[in-house]
Amino acid sequence: MLTLRGAAFALFLLLAPTFASPQSESPDKQSDSTPPQQASPSGSSVASAAQSDPGILPAPEVTLAAQGPGPTPADQKIDNSTGKQTTRMFGIIPNFAAVSADTVLPPLTTRAKFVLATQDSVDYSSFIWTGILAGQSMALNSYPEFHHGPAGYSRYYWRAFADQASGSYFTEAIVPALTHEDPRYYTRGHGGFFRRAGYALSRVVLTKTDSGRTTFNFSEIVGNAMEAGLSNLYYPAQERGLHSTAINWLSQLEAASLNNLVREFWPDIHHKLQRKN
């Protein structure tokens, strides 16, 4: 699963959605319009002239109905961007598992869950993000056993890729298929900042089932634990054990929490960025 740890996102999370209330036209304006009876004399005179002279065709009457509705004020336009997700955030970061607010979707099949996990695992941005994580780990000398240089970087890289790919398959495909859970994030999109932030964080421990009920999020909790346990197979012996596995598991849950926060407020961020452009 692609994670976002940048502190800059905290500024974006403070952006509150803008609510626009449409204004209704006052019924008193109807009294200002010209009564239809005033147009009848001119119409009858034209018709009389047409009857007296066959060469003159009667001019078509122009009614208020033919003119069509008047222009709609800009403030009466409905804003459909509230809670609307995009397939990518900032045009790069995959956001395939996010569902727009107030959207009802059919349950994912087992095959669709594996397709979703594959999309997150082999997306081009995943390889870029893995390279960044591998470079950061090597710069911090996180695993001295890997050493430095191109060979050391390759050791960091493939292990970081294995971490994110196995995490995606465990949390979005394997465990959800067994527990019949929906691995997608359903955006709340409404309410204040703290209410929405609390909802986003709660989705780490709560999720929807394929039938639409709310249940304990085995996919996230157990799936990340399975990923942390699997990493013991390809990390150095000094980095294995219960303590290291628990640290890895907690870091994955922390990343999932940050992902949910960014997903929840991404529609607001995207809307504000579009308005600036």
The counted number of beta strands is 7
Q: Main sheet, how many strands, which sense, barrel?
A: 3 strands, antiparallel
Low-confidence runs (pLDDT<50, min 5 residues)?
Answer: 1-79
State the strand order across the main sheet: 4-6-7
Shape: globular
Order of helices and strands: HHHEEEHHHEEHEEHH
Helix content: 40-55%
Would you tell me the overall average pLDDT? 79
Using only C-alpha atoms, the radius of gyration works out to 30 Å
Structural class: mainly alpha
Share of residues in strands: 5-15%
Cα(first) to Cα(last) distance is: 30 Å
Give the number of helices: 9
Describe the fold and architecture.
This protein has a domain at 107-276. The chain contains nine helices and seven strands; from the N terminus they run αααβββαααββαββαα. The protein has helices at residues 9-13, 40-52, 64-67, 110-122, 124-139, 149-179, 193-202, 218-230, 242-276, and strands at residues 88-89, 93-94, 98-99, 181-182, 185-186, 206-209, 214-216. Strands 4-6-7 form a three-stranded antiparallel β-sheet. Strands 1-2 form a two-stranded antiparallel sheet. Strand 1 (88-89) and strand 2 (93-94) form a beta hairpin.
